[in-house]
Amino acid sequence: MKQTAPPNPVMSTTGRTVTWILTSSAALLALLANARSLGLTPWLEGSLFSFADHAAARIMVSPRSDSLDAIGDTIPLVATVSDHRGAVLSGARIHWAAADTTVVSVDSSGTVVARGPGSTWVSATVRDLTARAVLTVRQIPRRVLIAGDSSVRIQQGDTLQFAAIALDGRGHRIAQVTPRWQSRDTTVVQVDSLGTAIGRSAGHSRLWAAVGGSMADVAVEVKLTATAVEVLSGDHQHAIAGNPLPGPIVLRALSPEGRPVPGAIATIMTGDGEGQALPRDLVADRDGRFRFTWTLSRHAGPQRVLIRLSTTDSLFGVLGEADPEPGTTVTELLGSQPEGRAGTFLVEPVRLRFTDTTGAALAGVPVSWRLLDGGAIDAPARTDSLGEAQARWQLGPHPGPQRLLAQIGSPRTIPAFRVTASALPGPPASLTLVAGGGQVGQAGRQLAKTIVLAVRDSAGNPVPGVSLAVSPSTGSVADLAPATDSVGRAVVRWALGTQAGPQTLRVRSESVPIEAGVTATAVAGPAAALELAETPGKPGQPHRLVATVTDLNSNPVQGAKVQFVSPGGRLSATSLTSDATGRARVTWTPGRDALSQRVTATIRGTRLSAVLPPATSPGAPRSP
Questions:
Q1: DSSP per residue over 57-69, as a string?
Q2: Is the pLDDT of residue 47 over 60?
Q3: Phi, psi (rounded to 5 degrees) for 46
Q4: What are the beta bridge partners of residue 53?
């Protein structure tokens, strides 16, 4: 009989443990699989432990991108969770979040709501797994709204600001979109891109504000308005004070673009409250014209009628001129008879006073001025408030009596007033060089040509008998105080100074501050002296010799031909031309005999010579 071994207690315990684990796992899996049918899903989702969370290997969001057309539009997002085998898991805890909540918001079920224009992403997260969907909110205009009434009226030339907004499908304003404005008839009303409308001419038109295929309109009526007055005839008429103007005043009321305005209403009044303009109240005819007559007041001078349109606060004026009454005008010269130098302004202005026979000043009366003998006049066109007029009179260029005529009123009825002034010869005003300037002459000698100067007054006339003072910078003149002759000229003879170079002659008037300067250039005369000198050098080196040529006044002579001779010695050159300093430079190597110890320099064409003796040559060998 076979004997059986007793059971191992360790192995029995392990087996029981494994069996319990397998059994518990199977029960848990069955519970999770039937959690929805058993009503346990909410409990499991709220618990700290989720099998789907731990089993999740991938998450996807659908749709991955989408757009919304209006603020408030919604779109559902669906998140799908699967394990590593691709099986879809249910019960996973999904966390939804929007990156920019000003663009969209999302709730726990994945429903997205549009909040504002823009683009952002929404994420769905399970554990460390995340999927995203890109959402764009782009408001599409569905309607245009114009603020205010549907029909408006503006005056011609006025502007009106319209406001229009674009709305999306849910009635929210689209801030980034500005409606485009358009006028049906731009000759009646124009509108710019910002909705600013301006009435151009009378009539009716419509304005549209459009975005895409959506639009709204408003009716606009432009009324013709009188804003200006045109004078057709009658302005600046003349009449004797207190009398009617010879013709009526005809005006036309105009719109901003210059069109006549029928039926325009205007009121007229005289500027000084005197005189009379009739009728006082005016209504424009079918051509926009007004017509009235004007009787001037009894005051001589300019007068004015004012016109005010009922549609504007501006005043428009028409001018008339009241001439003094003939036979009642008195003209008086204030002050003494004028006198002055020819070609200059009188020291005091010519003052005239105009009154009537009662002594009343003729204020604001036009005055015309005329010179009969040349010159110039600076005078007012009208008398001042005292009836006076002051004229600055520049006399003509010629001495003698000169005449000025002053005219007020009509020349046919009122004679001109004559003023006579005495014109004296003008004083010296300029001193100019006529001839003899810029000459070149030998130093110490008189210039070949005489210096001629002219003195003239401000009108360019020669002035005789003017004494001049002449002062040369160097040299001398025959007459230090010449006077101008009958043709205003003075002649000066000038002997240059002994020093070569530029020289000046100053000429001035002793009576008036005018002067002139004359320049000349003194050059050296012919060679008159020759010097030969040695510049010391190093022993054993050639001697450096300098020949200097000067004129009688010791001025260096340039261009002199200097020849050098040294029998038996060696010279760097035997013939040289003196430079600007009068010098000619050579080098010399003496010989050994006595004749070679001397150098002779001569100037070609002259008897001038210079000898350098042996004793003056340092380092030269002496004769035996």
A1: -EEEEESSEEEES
A2: no
A3: -85, -10
A4: none
SS (H, E, C) 263-307: CCEEEEEECCCCCEEECCEEECCCCCEEEEEEECCCCCEEEEEEE
Q: Write down all domains in the chain, each with its CATH number in brackets.
A: 52-137 (2.60.40.1080), 143-223 (2.60.40.1080), 228-323 (2.60.40.10), 334-352+360-424 (2.60.40.10), 430-523 (2.60.40.10), 529-616 (2.60.40.10)
* Spatial distance between the Cα atoms of 161 and 192, rounded to a whole number of angstroms: 10
C-alpha span between 113 and 94 (Å, rounded): 18
- Do residues 249 and 239 make contact, with C-beta atoms less than 8 angstroms apart? no
Using alpha carbons, select from 609, 534, 607 the residue that is nearest to residue 565.
Answer: 609
CA distances from 145 to 193, 356, 569 (A): 16, 75, 121
Q: What is the mean pLDDT of the chain?
A: 87
* DSSP code, position 500: -
- Residue 17 is inside which H or E element, if any? helix 9-33
DSSP 602: E
Alpha carbon distance, N-terminus to C-terminus of the chain:
173
Quick check: 79 pLDDT over 50?
yes
Half-sphere exposure of 420 (CA within 13 A, CB side): 3
The C-alpha atoms of residue 485 and residue 141 are separated, in whole angstroms, by 102
Q: Given the structure tokens 């929210």, which residue do they identify? A: 172
Task: Give the C-alpha separation, 441 to 430, whole Å.
Answer: 28
Bridge partner list, 459: none
Tokens of 485: 């002759």
pLDDT score for 510: 75
Q: Considering Cα of 612, then 613, then 615, then 617, what sign does the dihedral take?
A: positive
The β-bridge relationship of strands 583-589 and 570-571 is: antiparallel
* Calpha distance 543→530 (Å, rounded): 19
pLDDT band for position 39 (cuts 50, 70, 90): low
596 vs 588: CA distance, rounded Å:
10
171: DSSP letter: S
Query: Cα–Cα distance between 244 and 601 in angstroms, integer?
Result: 111
Task: Return the C-alpha torsion angle 278, 279, 284, 287, nearest 10.
Answer: -50
386-414: pLDDT as tens digits: 999 999 999 998 877 999 999 998 888 88
- In sequence order, the 6+-apart residues with CB closer than 8 A to the CB of 115 are 71, 101, 102, 103, 104, 105, 137
Q: Say if CB 67 and CB 81 are below 8 A apart.
A: no
Q: Of how many residues is the chain composed? A: 624
For the record, the structure tokens of 150 come out as 């549907």
Answer yes or no: are the C-beta atoms of 549 and 530 closer than 8 Å. yes
Asked if 278 and 244 count as a contact pair (C-beta separation under 8 A), the reply is no
